[in-house]
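Researcher: Re-running this chain for the archive, since the previous output was lost when a drive failed. Same request as before.
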Amino acid sequence: MTNSATIPAGVGWTALMTAYARAQETRRADRLFEDPYAVNYIAALTSGTVPGRDTLPRVGPARDDGSSALWSLLTAYFAGRTPFFDNQVRAGVAAGAVQVCILAAGLDSRAQRDR
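Model: Regenerated structure tokens:
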């Protein structure tokens, strides 16, 4: 599936591209956050063992080789918003919130990775 526009049934492009960007961020030495589940999603999608590779496989418009300025910009957006929302949730919980609802979470694994 590395160059195909076909994605698994029930998986939306937005969820997939966000997971791909989170997987890229997770693999960076200077990462803002770590989401190992996102790396596993991409590995499962491409039937590969992504964690040991130098770059992630290309999935539709997402690429990890620096060849797309637009994808690089989108990746920075996805990576930047994750810590922002993580901090907002932490602040809400610290202020007394007892329940958090993540709407339209897609493949977001925030609930599993931030315990």
